[in-house]
Specification:
With about 160 residues, the chain is an alpha/beta fold. Helices cover about 15% and strands about 50% of the residues. A 4-stranded mixed beta sheet has the order 1-2-4-6, with helices on one face. Strands 3-5-7-8 form a 4-stranded mixed beta sheet, with no helix packed on it. A hairpin with a 5-residue loop joins strand 9 and strand 10. The two termini are about 30 Å apart.
């Protein structure tokens, strides 16, 4: 995206430049057993995933990502998967907004996976409109914690 401090791609496009970190994140997800049924279902539709990348040392500021789901004739389950890749010292304040044009009942199976480089910071807010009167709002933030191991190498926990 020219002029933006970040790159946004479909999964297929992003694999050309960021294959290794995306595959590592995707492979960390446990799929076995009944407690992972929704994770496994989301992974079955991973081809719909989006990737957001912020380069080393870039402060991308606040980025609004709007997920829209089309009006359907029946109740449905929609999937959204986002991989966030922040290189060393990168910063991102991500706001995800979920909107549905549907008047029918439905559900969202949403998953965000992030890989943060050294001193990277991610603030994340998710807004989901349930009805005209009800909104679900969640917020979280994360940064890698580094520790020195006995050999002196830095490790992210």
């Amino acid at each position: 995206m020219p002029g933006n401090p970040y790159d946004g791609h479909t999964l297929r496009e992003a694999l050309e430049q960021h294959d290794r970190p995306i595959r590592e994140l995707a492979q960390r997800v446990g799929l076995g057993g009944p407690s992972h049924a929704f994770t496994a279902l989301n992974t079955a539709f991973i081809d719909r995933a989006q990737v957001l990348h912020v380069a080393r040392g870039v402060d991308a500021g606040r980025v609004l990502l709007q997920w829209s789901f089309s009006d359907g004739a029946a109740d449905r389950l929609d999937f959204a998967r986002l991989f966030v890749l922040l290189e060393d010292n990168a910063r991102l304040d991500l706001v995800e907004q979920f909107e549905s044009a549907s008047t029918h009942a439905g559900a969202l199976n949403v998953m965000l996976q992030a890989r943060l480089g050294d001193a990277a910071q991610l603030a994340h807010t998710r807004v989901q409109r349930e009805t005209d009167e009800a909104v679900l709002l969640t917020a979280s933030g994360c940064a890698p914690r580094t520790e020195r191991s006995a050999s002196g190498a830095s490790a992210i926990r």
